[in-house]
Each structure stands twice: as C-alpha cells, then as structure tokens.
Amino acid sequence: MTQKKINECNVLVTPTSFARYDKSFAKELENTVGNVEYNITGKPLKENDLIPIIDRFDGMIAGLDEITEKVIDNAKNLKVIARYGTGVDRVDLNAAKRAGIIVTNTPGVNSVSVAELAVTLSLAASRNIIVGNNKTKEGNWPRLSGASLYGKTFGIIGLGRIGKEVALRIYSFNVKILAYDICQNKDFAFKYHINYVDLDTLLSNSDIVSLHIPVLSETKSLINKSTLLKMKKGSILINTSRGELVDEDALYESLVCGHLKAAALDAFMHEPPVGSKLLNLDQVITTPHMGAATDNASNEMSKVALKDCIAVLKGEKPRYPVFDL
Questions:
Q1: 322 assigned to some structural domain
Q2: 129-137 vs 111-126: helix crossing angle, rounded to 10
Q3: Among all residues, which ones are annotated catalytic?
Q4: Residues 203 and 215 in one domain
C-alpha cells in the first residue's frame, strides 16, 4: 500500500460528539488531511452503511459503528481505525490485523464520565426519581418511597479504570463495596474497604450491581436467567458498559415478576432499542449510551483519537495501538 502524503488523505469521522465542545480538533484535522467527511445520520453506522463508502477513506475516527470483517474487506485504502472511546468490541480486530490496519483507542479518558453516570443512575433507580418526575409533571402527587444507599451493599463487576472511579464515588455513601474481577488490585481494595468476592457471592449479596466489563466470549450475556436468579431479591441492575452483557428477555422477566426492583440501562443489545419490551416498564430507566457524552470526556477522546489517526497517516507510531502489527 503506497503511503500517501498527509494532505492527500481522506478521513471519515463517525462519532457525532467529535469536537462538539472544542471545534479546534475538527479544524486541526481538516487543516492537516486532504478531506474530512462526517457522519450526519446522528447514530452509529451499520455494516451496510459502511461497506459502500469505506474504500474512499485512508483513516477513520470511529464511534460505536459496526466495523465487521466485510467492512474491512472493502476498506482497500484504510490505514487506521482510531476508536473514539475505549471499547473495541465492535471492530473485528482479527480482520483489521490481517489487513494491516492499525486500530487505536482512547483508554481511560472517559472513565470519570461513565462512573458519574453509573452513580447517578444508581441514585435515580433507588429513589424512584424518574417515576416521581413523570407523575408530578402529569399533575399527580404520589407518595413514593425509595431506598437509601447508606448501609447497603454495592457490587461492582469489573474493577478496572471505570469500576475504580465508581468505587471512589460510591465509597462516600457509606456502603459496603463488593467487587468481582479476574485481576485484583489489593492495595486499592484495602484503601477503600472493598472486598473481592466470586461472582455468585457478589450477586446474592448486593443491593445494587453495576457492570463495568468488556464484551468477550466469556462475558457475553453474563447477566442471564441463571445469574439473575442468583441476584438478591429487590436488587437493582446498572449497565453503563455494553448491552451484549445482558440477556434482555431474561431481565424483562426478572423485573416483571418482581425479583429485581429496577434496572438502569445506558446500553442495549440493539441501539436504539426500538421495540424493546424493557421500554414499557416504569421500573426501567433508559439513557441513550451517553456515559461518555460529557464535555471533558468528549474533548479528551477527540484529542487522543485525532492525534493517533494523524500519526498513522504520517507513517508514525500511534500512542495507543490496540495490537502490534
């Protein structure tokens, strides 16, 4: 593949929040490369959206798009996929590696924003805030009661960057914190009085369970009929990670029968979740995958993805490659 001059390169930018808060990132990209095209659909691009157009581009700053093997097979000129975010589960990494396409991400830059949303959703679900808001606006004045976080048990599945930020914030509520992770940071756990336990122990003892793990073959549908039955009756599930972690049909049944009190979901199996039965339940809070959608996170993701995209197109080594070619 012949190396083009940087001012002859075409770049596709799909995240709708790229450079939203700081336009200088877009200007820098536009002044550096030959042509920039933006996603104007307002949502992540599907495989069928990308296949007809991807061959035009030398670089891609990618959001939550479906970058499948078929997409990569048609990406004849693509040199870099710079993920705007941490997760790379929607990029076929094996296909990219075979094609010699460098994949990068932006590790850690959205951790605080996602953690803040996870804690916010925990409070909203515990205190029936959304139902109270809706009923009051309808002219009603319901006597709603909720659960205090104080003295409860908060379970964190995945005590990585985001999980740690959740723990830092939830610690001040005087809760008992349980964590499940294959990699254990015992110094951090000791400092914040976190107990590492196995998954079954966490599920059966936690009043709130918050998911902060990637989608892997062993974690897909981790929350399913079997694991939901192991959860404490009246508990709450929070998912600000990936929709593929949760069997949504099983979650629906668990909520309808009253085993789970509530769920708060920022991610779904299919996004947007048009037609999902979960949308019909008052005890389900939904948000449109907005965990990383803050000014601070957007600026940092824009900067890191931009720098790595340009570096690869210049023939330089990126800062955050996902794998070595």
A1: no
A2: 60
A3: 242, 271, 289
A4: yes
